[in-house]
Design goal:
The protein has about 80 residues and is of the alpha/beta class. Helices cover about 15% and strands about 20% of the residues. It has one domain. A four-stranded mixed beta sheet has the order 1-2-3-4, with helices on one face. It starts with 10 loop residues before the first strand and ends with a strand.
Length: about 80
């Protein structure tokens, strides 16, 4: 993982990879980012339809996924936002 600098505006990454099936540690990345005051965006397009997603456990600011993967019509999606203050 690359380190961020004071120019980093957001840490964005995928929650899981569909090729090897790797689950990335959302909480661990969020913990590192929060120490640097960097907001976290986790992409859950592959994870959200296949496992329970608990935003309180992940401690990220944004969690986004496409509705198509969870059986919604095309062009639907969801972004969950954490209250910052």
């Amino acid at each position: 993982m690359r380190r961020w600098s004071d120019k980093t505006k957001i840490a964005g990454f995928s929650h899981s990879s569909h090729v090897p099936g790797t689950m990335f540690p959302v909480y661990a990345v969020a913990e590192l980012a929060l120490k640097q005051n960097v907001p976290v965006l986790a992409g859950g397009a592959r994870a959200a339809p296949n496992m329970p997603v608990n935003m309180q456990n992940y401690d990220c600011h944004f969690y986004a996924f496409t509705g198509r993967k969870v059986g919604s019509p095309s062009l639907c999606g969801c972004t969950v936002l954490k209250a910052l203050y």
